[in-house]
Amino acid sequence: MQSAFSSEERAAADAVINFDAAEITCPACGTSFATGPSECPDCGLFLGN
User: Fold this and answer.
1) pTM, to two decimals
2) Would you give the distance in Å from CA 4 to the centre of its chain?
3) pLDDT tens for residues 3-45?
4) In the chain, count of helices (H) and strands (E)?
5) DSSP H helical segments within 1-49, as ranges?
6) Which CA distances in Å does 31 have to 3, 6, 10, 19, 21?
7) Which residue in 39, 8, 9, 10 sits closest to 26, CA to CA?
8) pLDDT at 1 (0 to 100)
9) Which domain does 42 fall in, by range?
10) How many domains does the chain have?
11) Minimal CA–CA distance to 24: which of 9, 39, 5?
12) What is the reported pLDDT for 31?
């Protein structure tokens, strides 16, 4: 059975945000940025930190 999600969507769903890392990648848009902000500086996704 094929998934209804693209490979990019599956990768985003599998992403785990490690707030102890120096850099994180937004699971919604893929933007990488330094850990610290509570939302993605590109798309605005709230990251819950």
Assistant:
1) 0.63
2) 20
3) 677 887 777 666 677 888 899 888 889 899 998 888 999 999 9
4) 1, 2
5) 7-14
6) 24, 18, 16, 15, 15
7) 39
8) 40
9) 1-49
10) 1
11) 39
12) 92
